[in-house]
């Protein structure tokens, strides 16, 4: 999405049940993503009763956690938040690929919005910048995308 400003969405007309999956690993970063997502959901009119946060150990566990949520059919959208930061081995590439593919496949299989707020950063500084308390927060963007998709699917009766 770059630095473009996200378009305002009309979400205050209908209730939504939103699940947020947040990994615990790289906690400083993931807590920032979670705060951004929850702030944005609140800004868009979602109440505390409409949002449930699920925790998992790390990014690798996000797809399975999200899958179980999708299978429950209790939620209109799932927001996935985590952080994979490159180290000295190929681990970064493997985890990033598995997580992104897993999240993508869930939305296609269960036909609900499953948004990607998992940072794949080369440095700690990049991850912190993208999880800071401002408009560049990728958790905020993932929440906005989830609500936009729920609204879009409802408007088009798909």
Tell me about this structure:
- With 158 residues, this protein is an alpha/beta fold.
- The chain has one domain (18-155): Lumazine/riboflavin synthase (Rossmann fold, 3-Layer(aba) Sandwich).
- It contains five helices and four strands; from the N terminus they run E-H-E-H-E-H-E-H-H.
- Strands 2-1-3-4 form a four-stranded parallel beta sheet, with helices on both faces.
- Helix 1 packs parallel to helix 5 and helix 2 (62-72) runs parallel beside helix 3.
- The longest helix is centred in the middle third of the chain and has 20 residues, at 91-110.
- It is globular.
- 41% of the residues are buried.
- Mean pLDDT is 92; it is low at 1-9.
Radius of gyration: 15 Å
Helicity, in percent?
40-55%
- Written as H for each helix and E for each strand, in order along the chain, the element string is EHEHEHEHH
Q: Classify the oligomer.
A: single chain
Query: In the CATH hierarchy, what is the superfamily?
Result: Lumazine/riboflavin synthase
Uncertain runs: 1-9
Summed up, the domain count is 1
Largest sheet: 4 strands, parallel
């Amino acid at each position: 999405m770059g630095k473009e400003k996200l378009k305002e969405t009309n979400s205050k007309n209908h209730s939504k049940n939103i699940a947020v999956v947040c990994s615990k690993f790289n906690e400083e970063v993931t807590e920032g993503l979670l705060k951004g997502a929850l702030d944005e959901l609140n800004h868009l009119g979602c109440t505390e009763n409409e949002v449930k946060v699920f925790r998992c150990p790390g990014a690798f566990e996000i797809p399975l956690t999200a899958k179980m949520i999708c299978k429950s059919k209790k939620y209109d959208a799932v927001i996935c938040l985590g952080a994979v930061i490159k180290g000295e081995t190929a681990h970064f590439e493997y985890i990033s690929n598995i997580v992104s593919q897993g999240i993508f496949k869930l939305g296609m299989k269960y036909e609900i919005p499953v948004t990607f707020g998992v940072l794949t950063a080369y440095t700690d500084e990049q991850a912190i910048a993208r999880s800071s308390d401002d408009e560049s927060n990728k958790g905020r963007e993932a929440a906005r995308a989830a609500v936009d998709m729920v609204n879009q699917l409802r408007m088009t009766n798909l």
